[in-house]
Amino acid sequence: MTQKIINVGIVGGTGYTGVELLRLLVQHPNAKLTAITSRSEAGIPVADMFHNLRGWTDLKFVEPAAAALDQCDLVFFATPNGIAMKDTPALVKAGVRVIDVAADFRIKDIAEWERWYKMPHACPELVAEAVYGLPEVNRAQIVGARIVANPGCYPTAVQLGFLPLVEAGVVDIEHLIADAKSGVSGAGRKAEVHTLLAEAADNFKAYGVPGHRHFPEIKQGLTHIAQKAVNLVFTPHLTPMIRGIHATLYARLTQEVDLQSLYENRYANEAFVDVMPAGSHPDTRGVRGVNVCRMAVHRPQNGDTVVVLSVIDNLVKGAAGQALQNMNIMFGLPETTGLRQVALLP
Amino acid sequence: MTQKIINVGIVGGTGYTGVELLRLLVQHPNAKLTAITSRSEAGIPVADMFHNLRGWTDLKFVEPAAAALDQCDLVFFATPNGIAMKDTPALVKAGVRVIDVAADFRIKDIAEWERWYKMPHACPELVAEAVYGLPEVNRAQIVGARIVANPGCYPTAVQLGFLPLVEAGVVDIEHLIADAKSGVSGAGRKAEVHTLLAEAADNFKAYGVPGHRHFPEIKQGLTHIAQKAVNLVFTPHLTPMIRGIHATLYARLTQEVDLQSLYENRYANEAFVDVMPAGSHPDTRGVRGVNVCRMAVHRPQNGDTVVVLSVIDNLVKGAAGQALQNMNIMFGLPETTGLRQVALLP
Amino acid sequence: MTQKIINVGIVGGTGYTGVELLRLLVQHPNAKLTAITSRSEAGIPVADMFHNLRGWTDLKFVEPAAAALDQCDLVFFATPNGIAMKDTPALVKAGVRVIDVAADFRIKDIAEWERWYKMPHACPELVAEAVYGLPEVNRAQIVGARIVANPGCYPTAVQLGFLPLVEAGVVDIEHLIADAKSGVSGAGRKAEVHTLLAEAADNFKAYGVPGHRHFPEIKQGLTHIAQKAVNLVFTPHLTPMIRGIHATLYARLTQEVDLQSLYENRYANEAFVDVMPAGSHPDTRGVRGVNVCRMAVHRPQNGDTVVVLSVIDNLVKGAAGQALQNMNIMFGLPETTGLRQVALLP
Amino acid sequence: MTQKIINVGIVGGTGYTGVELLRLLVQHPNAKLTAITSRSEAGIPVADMFHNLRGWTDLKFVEPAAAALDQCDLVFFATPNGIAMKDTPALVKAGVRVIDVAADFRIKDIAEWERWYKMPHACPELVAEAVYGLPEVNRAQIVGARIVANPGCYPTAVQLGFLPLVEAGVVDIEHLIADAKSGVSGAGRKAEVHTLLAEAADNFKAYGVPGHRHFPEIKQGLTHIAQKAVNLVFTPHLTPMIRGIHATLYARLTQEVDLQSLYENRYANEAFVDVMPAGSHPDTRGVRGVNVCRMAVHRPQNGDTVVVLSVIDNLVKGAAGQALQNMNIMFGLPETTGLRQVALLP
User: Fold this and answer.
1) In this structure, how many other beta carbons lie within 10 angstroms of the beta carbon of residue D100?
2) Architecture of B6-129 per CATH?
C-alpha cells in the first residue's frame, strides 16, 4: 500500500514553534519536510542550532526566495505576526494550503485585528475564508480549508475549558473570568530582557491586565460557540517554567447541571482532550511535550461558581501539535497520526 | 540612652519560618535571642544547619524542656499546627507573651478550626482572647495582646488586597474570587514528594480546590472587615519558585468608585503596604526577602470587574516579618525596627 | 510476519526509573508489560500516580507476591539497592532474565560493594556472572546474559567520556578527574529535605566529595577498559534542574594524538553516542528524554590537558533507556527499537 | 561626631551590577548617591525599573553629561567593557577616585587585554597605576589607589580558593584546574537568546572552553601571588540559577601539608572569607546576597589531589559587594561598613 506523503514547508523555523514543528514532523510518517526558511540563518544546518535534531535532519535554513514553497502541499508559518498575511495570497493561488501558527488570520473583524496588532492587514479577503483551527469546534470546516488560522496558546486552553459550559448555556456568559498562567516559552525565542532567566526565574507576575491580544480571540471564539455575545476578564501571568499553560476558569452557574457528565460527554470522542475524574488537579508537566488538553471541573463549597482547571503544553496543543492535528484533518489522515507521544515526566 | 531589649525564644526553629525569624532577629537591634528549641536537632549549632547564619549566632538547638522559655519576654511558635495551643497556657500564666506563626489561634470558631485542622483544640478559652495579627486591621488590639495569632501567608495577601474594597462596601462580597499562586517554601521544610524539585519545577498546578485551610481564615477576616458575611472562592496554586505569593483577586463592583484613590488613601500611612501607580504589575521578586505587600488595582476594559494584584514574600510579610512587625507593636517599638531591608533583585 | 513479544515485569515502579521505564515500554513495539509491583501503592492504577500515562496503560500496581514475575521473559528491578539481589536467584532459576537498574550487581569485588552499600550481599555467586550493561563496552557479553547490571548514571557519562582516551592509552590514567553535575531526579523520587525545590532550586553545591558510591563503579569500569589500574578524583554536584548529567572530564596527555579523530572513530558505529564537531559544547537539554550520550573533546590553549564534555539524560541513557537498550540486545532486536525519540527542546 | 560622607556616582546603572550597587549603597551609612547615569533610560526613576528600590531612592537616571560626576568623591563604572577607560582619565584629573567594576583596568599586559577584549585600550598609562581590587591580596595598595580594577566574578572565586595553596607553594602551579559554574546573572542584564529562561532553565552546559576572558585575569592574579608563572585550565559552565558561582578547584600536591590549618590560618583575619570545617560542602545559596567567599578544602581518598570548593554570590563578592569593600578601604572606613547582611535562605 502506498503511503500518502505530504510535502511540507516551514516559513520561519528558528523560533520555538518552528523547532517544535520540526520535532514533530521528523517523526510524522506522512510528512516530508522539503524546506525551512530563515533570512537570518540561511545556510546553517537546522541541527546546528537545535541539538535535539542532530541525526534527524540534514536540512539547512534557506532564504525564502530559494525555498520553492509553491511546490509544497502545505506551508506552515511559524513567523512573527504580519508575515503570513503577505505571503499567503500567492501560495494559495499556487494551490498550496497554509496553516498560520501566528495570528494573521485569527480575528474576523479586520478593524479589531488592526487595533490589537497595530498594523494594516494585507489580505482581508482571505481572513473571511480562513478557518479557525480549533478541531474540537471546527473539525468539519478544517477538512476542506485552504487557510487554517491555528489558535493561540491561551485561547486554546481557555476555549476548551469553557466550551461545555458555554455550549450548554448553563453559565453567565457576560462575566467569565480566565486567570491564565504561562511558561516563558510562550513569549518566543526572542532576545528580550523580561524573559531572561535572571528576570523571570523565581518570580511570578501578571502582565497585560489592561489588555492582551488573546482577549479578542477568546471573546470571538466563545461568542461563536455561544451564538451570542460573551464577555470575560482575561488575566495572563508569567510563570517561571519553560512550557505549559494552566488556565483557571471561573463561571457563575445559571442553572443546575451535572458538571462532570457534561464535560465527559462533550469530550468523549476527542482524542486530545482528557477530562479527569471529579476532584482532580491536572498539572502542566503531565502534558509536557504532548498534544493534549487535560482538564478537571470543580464546584467549591458546592456554591454557584464553577472552577475549571485546564492545562496544555503551549508549544504543542497550544501551537505546533495542534497545527499537525489540523494538517492530519486537512489531508485525510487519522487525526492522531504522528501525535502519539508520551509526556515527559518528571 | 538605654535601649529596650526583648528576650526572645523560638519554639521549632528548623523550618523555613524558623530560619527566617532567625535571619531577621539577628539583625534586630532590640531582640536578644535566648533559646531556640528543636527535639530532633538538639545540640546542633543553628549555623551548621543554616549556613547563612554562620558568624551570626553561636546558639544551638535545645530540647524544649531545657530552654527556660518562661524567662523570655516573648516566645514565637514556628511549629507545626497543634503545638502552640499546648504550650501557650503555661507561658501566658508565666507572663510570657506569645506570637504563634502557625494556625492554632487564628480561627475564632473552635468547631470550624477543629474541622479544618482535624484535631481537638487544647485551649479554646485562649482563642477568644488571642488577637489576629494583621496590623493593618488590628493594630490597636495587638499593642496589648498576650497572644497574637500571626496570619497565614495566603490570608495576608488576599485580605490586604481586598481590604479597601470590602471596607468601602463597593463590591459584591458574596462572590469574591481569590486566585492565588505560591512558591513551594509555603509548604514548609518537610520531607515530602510533591515539593521535590523534580516534581515541582517546570510545573504548575492548582491544589486544594475543594477546600484549603486558609479558606475559613480569609472568610473570617473579610467578614470581620465587612461587618457582614463574606463569601469567596479561593484557588491556591503551586508555582515553581522558592518564595513569593501572587494573589489575583476579582470582585464585581456594585457602585462607581475611584479605585486608585481608594487604595492609595487606605494605605497612605502603612509602612508595609505599597500601592503602585495605576496600570502597574507587581512582581514577587520585588518583595523577595522584605516585609512588604505590594499591590496594583485594575479595571480591565473598564468593565464592572475589579482585578487586584497583590504580592508578598510568603516567609516575610506572610510569616516571620509580620511576626516581627507584631513584636514591634507589642513592645512599643517603631513598627519598622529591624525590618528595613531591600529586596534581593534579581 | 509474527513480531517477537517480550513479556516484561517491573519490580518497584513508583520511582523515577520506574516511570521512565513505563514511558519507554508503552511505546516499545515488542515489549508487553505484564506486571508492575509496589508494596506501598498496590491497587492504585499506574496512570493515577503518573498523569503522563493516562490513556497508555490500565495496569495497576500489585503486591510482589501477586505479580507472577516468574512467568515473565524479563524483569527489571527499579528498586532501592538491596532488593534485586534477594529476588534474582529465584527468578533466574525460573528461567527469567533480569536487568537490575539499581546497584546490586555492579561491583565485582563483594567486599568493596559491601563497604560502599553498607549491607551484606545476598548472592555473591551471581555477581560474578552478571554482565555490566554498558553496551559500548560489553555488547557481546550482554547478548547471552541472564543478569545485566545496568550502569549508574554518573558512571555512564564518565566512562563513555573517558573511554577513547583510556582505551588508546594516551593519558595518565592515575590522575583522571571527573567533575560531574547532576539534576536532582538523580536522587530519586524520595521524600527528603535536601532535594526539595525550596532547598535545591537557585542553588549549586558539591556533595560526597570524600566518597560517593559511583566512585568504585567508575574505577572498576575504567580499569576494565584500560586493563590496568585506573585512579581518579570524582566530584559530584547537585544542579538545580530536573534531568541531565554533565560530566566535565580532565586527563593529562602522555603522547600526541588527534583527539577528534580518536573520538569519532571509536564511536562511529554507536547509535547512542554522538561526538560533536571540534569546538562544540553539548548541553543537557539537547538529550532531554532520549537515550543519547553526546560529547565534545577540547584541548584548551593547546596544552597537555584534555577536557571532555559528556552529557546524558540521567533517567534515559543513565538508567531506563540504557536498560531497554540492553533488553534489545539480550532479545536479538535492533538496538534502537523503541528508543528513537527526539529530545524535548526547549 | 560627624560622620564621613562619600559622594558617589554610578555610570551605567541599568545592569545587574548597577542595581546591586544601588541595593547596597542605599543601605550604606556613609555613602551618598548623587548621580546615576544611563543614556537609554535618562529621565526614568530608578525605582520604576527596579521595584526593590521603591521607597529607597527618588533618583532618576540622567545623561552622563548632566551627572556632574567630577563633583563626586568616587565614581563606580558598572558599564560594559570599554567605557570606563574612556571616561576615567578626566575624572582622575578632576580628583575623583574610580572603581571600575568592568574589565578595563584588570589586565596589566595591554596587548593581552586587547587580544581578549578585541579593542584598542584608551589609556594604557592608567592601567599601570590601577590597583587590582582583591582586598585579601592587595589591601595595602587599595588604600591609596586612585583607580581600582574590581576583579571579575570567576577570578574572585578561583583566586581566593587557590590562594593559600599557591602562596604556600605546595602544589604544582603549572597544572591547576578550575571547573567553575555560574548563575546566569553573570551574563548581565542584556537581551540575548542564550540566557532566556526557556533556553537556560533545566539545562546545563560548559561554554568558552577554548578560551574565556577571565582566563588571563586568573592567570595574572595567581602568577602575582606565586611570584612565578602559573598555568591552569579554566572551564566555565552556565547553571540554571540566578546568582552564585561555585568553583571546584583541583591541584596536585607537591609536598605534605595540613590543608585545613593552611586555609584557616590564611583567612583568620579576613571578614569576608569563611573557611568551613573539614568535610564540608558550601552551597551558593548560603552566600546569596552577601559579600562572602565561603570555601571548604578536601583531599579525596587521601590521594595527591586537593579539591577546593569555593562559592560566592557573583553579584556581591563577585562584583558590587567587593566594590563597596574596596570603597570602604579607600576611604578609611571599617571594611565591613554597610556589608553586614544575612544571606537569604531559602
Assistant:
1) 27
2) 3-Layer(aba) Sandwich (3.40)
